Structure to design on (171 residues):
């Protein structure tokens, strides 16, 4: 039979999709494989060297020093994994994703063929909204600025809704 034990992983889908445009600068890269992968085989660089089984670069040839440092957390849900860059990607820039044959299925079989994809970022980042739906990323150039905006907005809202000594009459 052909089950997980005899099937090497292949990439079924990737998001952002190949040749996508206008991706948010903080977009998560989601890869759905044909089988469950061993997350220990999903490795990424913490610097600009193009190493690891999943690489993101601004150079289609993945030249020295062109890879983007990645967040080292890998989220897995069934056959899908999600990875993120360590910081915002450059705006309005073409990015290349390479998934190498080092990615292994849960049974140890590795990908037979390398997978390549590309997408272009826009200028936006995913909105961070507070509990009232207010976008706290407006005017933010970095995720840290957006998070600071959200924290201060929530602090102001917390202050505004703290009312002491309220007396209601005429009810």
């Amino acid at each position: 039979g052909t089950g997980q034990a005899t099937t090497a992983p292949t990439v079924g889908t990737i998001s952002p999709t190949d040749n996508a445009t206008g991706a948010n600068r903080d977009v998560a890269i989601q890869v759905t494989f044909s089988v469950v992968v061993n997350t220990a085989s999903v490795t990424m660089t913490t610097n600009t060297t193009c190493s690891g089984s999943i690489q993101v670069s601004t150079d289609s040839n993945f030249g020295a020093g062109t890879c983007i440092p990645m967040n080292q957390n890998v989220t897995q849900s069934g056959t899908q994994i999600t990875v993120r860059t360590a910081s915002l990607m450059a705006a309005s820039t073409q990015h290349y994703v390479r998934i190498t044959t080092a990615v292994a299925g849960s049974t140890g079989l590795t990908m037979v063929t390398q997978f390549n994809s590309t997408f272009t970022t826009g200028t936006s980042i995913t909105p961070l909204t507070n509990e009232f739906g207010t976008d706290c990323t407006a005017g933010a150039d970095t995720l840290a600025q957006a998070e600071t905006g959200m924290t201060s907005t929530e602090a102001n809202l917390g202050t505004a809704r703290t009312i002491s000594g309220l007396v209601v009459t005429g009810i």
The first strand starts at residue 11 and ends at 15. The chain is about 10% helix and 20% strand. The CA atoms of residues 150 and 156 lie 10 Å apart.
